Amino acid sequence: MGKGGEQGGEPEPQIRFYTWEEIQKHNLRTDKWLVIERKVYNVTKWANRHPGGQRVISHWAGEDATDAFQAFHINPTLVQKFLKPLLIGELAPGEPSQDRDKNSQLVEDFRTLRKTAEDMNLFRASPLFFSLYLGHIIALEVLAWLMVSYCGTGWITTLILACILTTSQAQAGWLQHDFGHLSVFKKSSWNHIVHKFVIGHLKGASANWWNHRHFQHHAKPNIFKKDPDVNMLHIFVLGDTQPVEYGKKKLKYLPYNHQHEYFFLTIDLTVCYLQCSYCLTFLLMSPSSTSPQQSWFWSSISSPALCDGPARILLPFLIARSHMLPQPNTLRFLESHWFVWVTQMNHIPMEIDSEKHRDWLSSQMAATCNIQQSFFNDWFTGHLNFQIEHHLFPTMPRHNFWKVKPLVKSLCAKYGVQYEEKPLGKAFVDIVG
Prior knowledge:
Blueprint: H1 3-6, E1 17-18, H2 20-23, E2 27-28, E3 31-36, E4 39-42, H3 54-58, H4 66-72, H5 76-83, E5 87-91, H6 104-119, H7 127-151, H8 155-180, H9 188-202, H10 207-219, H11 241-248, H12 259-266, H13 268-283, H14 292-301, H15 309-321, H16 328-344, H17 360-367, E6 370-371, H18 375-381, H19 387-392, H20 401-415, E7 421-422, H21 424-432
Parallel strand pairs: 1-5, 6-7
Antiparallel strand pairs: 2-3, 3-4, 4-5
Helix pairs in contact: 6-20, 7-8, 8-9, 8-16, 13-15, 13-16
């Protein structure tokens, strides 16, 4: 009984202590515990209400999630209020802070590095940088529509428009990535609002879908059954272990010995599928449809103001269907290649395997590599050429990656962790390899 009980008040609840052996048993779909800064939380019921999705928090069940928690939340103090009712105890005094014999000194040094980056204000975004970035995207969009207005839709104009809009769409993709990771504004709500504008109104895709998948990728990169980006739905077999597994089970949905060849035929479908599937139902409608949803859709896009979000999202696809603007198919083909080559060059050539329960630094380093820095590479990849720094610090504004890079390289050298960096051309070749 605590002091409250001794003074005649309500007794304070006793703190329960747990061992790692017990905590690791609670990693089931219906029973999830995790540890943050030595405190044990039961997130079983909370997982379904988790803003980042129930899967991303479930992937850390039975583990020390301290570094993941710090990496994804820009206001840990606020989030602690949600954690408080979930607290069930602490690690026993004799238990190490890290599970599964992880290198505690490496973990502590990484957390010191993060604190150093915070003290250097590297998590503070530059409003000018992101304003200019958004401005150059909008300028390209306006230029394209002006060309349609004054030059029509001839073949030469179409090809020029395809290049302009491919560039604006690719750059909008990198920009939505920034807001999705909460790396621009200090308040999460502002990041979410602008993220929905950029990915919904400029890209025509779903912010919720992006959050659901992308945070899983960052939580457990290149881990089968946890990272959706390496779940290729039997189209490709990846890494060193999956081909062996498929071979033993005699699973052959496609001729995998030729996957490096049909890779070129499938990537152009990626972005088209992701965006067009979101809009397909509406595109198949006609103005003569009588359902309330169809009537709303056609009345919305015929409005001069075009103020409805869904109508703005679907308008480019509607125009493509009516053959008023013939370049969207070319645009999506080019954008798909840009998107896929850039996003895969940092991960596909790296280790892809089952869960190994590494510490945060080691797990991210095993799954990511960097591309050499240049002004073009920074712009072309949306600073994803700094994939290592981005994965270690997802909420850090991308224009500060180059500043934290020397600290990361130094820490990796200290512990013999591989820090891989390569030219852009070699990174593309390595995907096929």
